[in-house]
Amino acid sequence: GAEPADDSLSACSPPKMHMCSATAGHMARDTCWRRASKSLALLACLLAVGVQCDEGTPAQPAGPVPVAEMTLMMTDGQGKQSPVTAAVMPEEDAAAAAIRFCYDKGLTQPSQVLEIVGYLKGALEGKEHEPDIELLRTAGAYSRRATESSKEESYAEAAADLVRALDRQGLDPQAKEKIERELTSTFRDIKKQRDAEEKQRKIEEEMENRRLAEEAAEEEARLRKAADDEDWANFSNDLKTKLHILKPGEPIAEGPHVLSSVQLTLHKAGQNGQKEEIPSHAQWHINEDVSHAAFRFCSTQMLHAHGEVKNVATHLRQRLSNPESAPPAHPDIASAADVVLADAKKKQDGGAYSEAGAAFARVLEKSGLPEDISQQASEGLELMLKTHQKFVEASTQYLDAAWEPAGKLIDEAMRGGGGAYNSTILLMRARCFQQRGQWADAVRATGTLLQKVDARGSWLRGQPRMMAVTLGASAAMELGDGEKALKFYQSCLRNDPDQKEISKQYKGLKNLLKLIKEVDEKLAKSQNHKALKTLEEALSGMKGMEVNSGLFRSGLQLRQCKGYSELKRHEEALLACDQSVQRRSEPVSGMFVDPKKLSEALSIRAASHMLDKNFDEAVRDLRECIDLIGQSEDFNQRMHEAQMAQRQWANQRNHREVLELPVNLHQLPKDKQCTYVKKAHKALARKWHPDKAKGNKARASRKMNEVSEAKEKLVEELGC
Question: Which residues make beta-bridge pairs with 265?
Answer without folding.
Answer: 279
